[in-house]
Amino acid sequence: MIVRIMGEGQVVLADSHLAELDKLDDELLAEMRSGDGPGFRRTLQALLSRVRELGEPLPDASLEPSELILPSPDATLEEVRELLSEDGLIPGT
């Protein structure tokens, strides 16, 4: 799966990592619903860090279609709300 972190680029991520990332996504969704700004910030950073750690970066010149788009590390709670589906940032997991 190709994942884009807005403002950073793309990584190739094995589908086997989605269950781990979905746990962080669920936490993020709960924090957004409750308005927990500090929790949201902490969990967003953890989610993006794991994607960076587990994924293999694509070259900057590569323009592959992204199957998943994640917000930038400095995205606000309101900006991330606009990206969410009912399932969170990682739909269908």
Question: What's the quick description here?
Answer:
By secondary structure, the chain is of the alpha+beta class. The protein is built from three helices and four strands.
Plain-language structure description:
There is one protein chain. The protein has one domain (2-83). 45% of the residues lie in helices and 14% in strands. The protein has helices at residues 18-34, 37-54, 77-83, and strands at residues 2-5, 9-12, 56-57, 68-70. Strands 3-2-1-4 form a 4-stranded mixed β-sheet, covered by helices on one side. β1 (2-5) and β2 (9-12) form a beta hairpin. The chain is globular, with a radius of gyration of 13 Å. The two termini are 13 Å apart.
